[in-house]
Specification:
The longest helix is centred in the C-terminal third of the chain and has 16 residues, at 217-232. The protein has one domain (5-115, 126-232): Ribonuclease Z/Hydroxyacylglutathione hydrolase-like (Metallo-beta-lactamase, Chain A, 4-Layer Sandwich), CATH 3.60.15.10. It is built from seven helices and twelve strands. Helix 6 (189-201) runs antiparallel to helix 7 (217-232). It is globular. By secondary structure, the chain is of the alpha/beta class. A six-stranded mixed beta sheet has the order 1-2-3-4-5-6, covered by helices on one side. It has a six-stranded mixed beta sheet with strand order 7-8-9-10-11-12. Helix 1 links the parallel strand 3 (22-26) and strand 4 (51-55).
């Protein structure tokens, strides 16, 4: 695969993937980052119209905040899981429950008092997907795979060459792979672990999260075994 580009838009890693018909973009970062994205494209000598598709891994404010601005700039189609289509098209802010005690408290407080700080513009959706979806029509040798757990409509993009772009299905805030890779917020831990298994079985070699550093398949397998052991006693 030709080199892809990681573009940091606020707190979120977004990924620009080249294909033989242009590019796809995975996630759209925090709000008010449209100008940052435009400058980054210029520095890469990429024409905005060359971006054909925006894949949203899940509809949380830090992954969709600049989606409308980027869609307007590029005229790219937007793909999201059908279960979260209304959230994106209506600009609904969702803060999932925390996994750790601290994040459980933060999630409750966020939902009760701070949701208005996370508002994002509503975005028209072109493609709502429910199942594994080929990216062949967009010139990409890869698939979009439903991987619920962080949210019920979470998606991952898996390229044939083994790169998996997973949104918040996994995180890696610390260098040298010393983290446990579970996101601090999530709706269903067993489903998150099942999503890891799905990607590994499908050939994922390296995992690129929405937050933090890449994760090798070997490290994810080790973390998966550890978390499953804890979960099942």
């Amino acid at each position: 695969m030709s080199p892809f580009h990681t573009i940091r838009l606020g707190t979120c890693n977004t990924y620009l993937i080249p294909g033989n018909k242009g590019f796809i973009l995975i996630d759209a970062g925090n709000r008010n980052k449209g100008a940052t994205f435009k400058r980054r494209l210029k520095s890469l000598s990429i024409t905005p119209g060359d971006i054909r598709l925006i894949v949203i891994t899940h509809v949380h404010f830090d992954h969709v905040g600049s989606c409308l601005a980027i869609k307007s700039l590029t005229q790219a189609k937007v793909m999201v899981h059908q279960a979260e289509r209304d959230l994106l098209e209506k600009g609904v802010v969702v803060i999932p429950p925390g996994i750790t005690p601290f994040h459980r408290i933060a999630g409750v407080l966020g939902n009760r008092y701070f949701k208005h700080f996370f508002q994002f513009p509503a975005v028209p959706v072109d493609i709502g997907t429910l199942y594994k979806t080929s990216l062949e029509d967009f010139g990409i040798d890869g698939i979009v795979i439903p991987t619920p757990g962080h949210t019920r409509g979470s998606l991952s993009v898996l390229l044939k060459s083994g790169e998996a772009f997973v949104g918040d299905l996994a995180v890696n805030y610390f260098p040298l792979g010393i983290g446990g890779y579970l996101p601090p917020y999530g709706e269903n831990i067993p489903q998150i672990l099942s999503g890891w298994e799905t990607l590994l079985k499908a050939g994922a070699k390296i995992i690129y999260p929405g937050h933090g550093f890449p994760i090798s398949a070997a490290r994810l397998i080790t973390a998966l075994k550890k978390h499953k052991k804890r979960l099942h006693g």
